[in-house]
Design a protein that fits this description.
Elements lengths: L12 E11 L1 H14 L3 E10 L2 E11 L4 E21 L2 E20 L9 H14 L1 H26 L10
Antiparallel strand pairs: 1-5, 2-3, 3-4, 4-5
């Protein structure tokens, strides 16, 4: 049963994007939220921490892909040394942010998110046997591969938004 944000499977995804320079934080945040919603994830903003000199924005995307499995997308945006700047682009004055940023993209999938197998110890043993022995390859290929491609796509789209040179991938 799903009990918290840190409770996702051992087959997870973890990537970090580091960026230093001038960026449109409001545009980036809206872009990330829109990307999550456009790919049929339920979007939740979980926390915003403002501890000078840094600020942390955490968000969650949840997507049920079957009666038994749910994908989780857990991006975090850390900002240090943020200063507002005005930049002239295309004959328009834009209010942007200058600073350092780290975007941490975590993801995983949760099996039995409704807790159907949590009702008794016998059902827990049956679930463990099914997942570890019978459905192992299906879980690994169907859910983990699906999640992996989604999150690589999300990571590369965020890099494209930031105009980073590493915005392409092997897929």
């Amino acid at each position: 049963m799903y009990t918290g944000l840190a409770d996702y499977s051992k087959y997870g995804f973890h990537r970090t994007i580091k960026y230093k320079g001038i960026f449109d934080f409001d545009g980036l945040y809206k872009y990330m939220a829109k990307w999550i919603k456009d790919h049929d994830f339920d979007f939740y903003e979980t926390k915003i921490w403002d501890y000078p000199p840094y600020r942390i924005h955490k968000m969650v995307g949840k997507k049920k892909i079957s009666f038994y499995a749910m994908l989780m997308l857990l991006p975090e945006v850390w900002i240090w040394e943020a200063k507002p700047v005005e930049v002239l682009r295309n004959d328009k004055v834009m209010h942007l942010t200058e600073g350092r940023m780290k975007i941490i993209i975590n993801g995983g999938f949760i099996l039995d998110y409704d807790g159907d197998f949590e009702k008794s110890p016998g059902l827990k043993k049956i679930e463990k046997f099914l997942v570890d022995k019978v459905l192992y390859h299906e879980v690994l290929l169907k859910y983990f591969d699906y999640l992996d491609y989604y999150l690589y796509d999300f990571m590369n789209d965020v890099k494209k938004f930031l105009d980073m040179e590493s915005a392409t991938n092997a897929y």
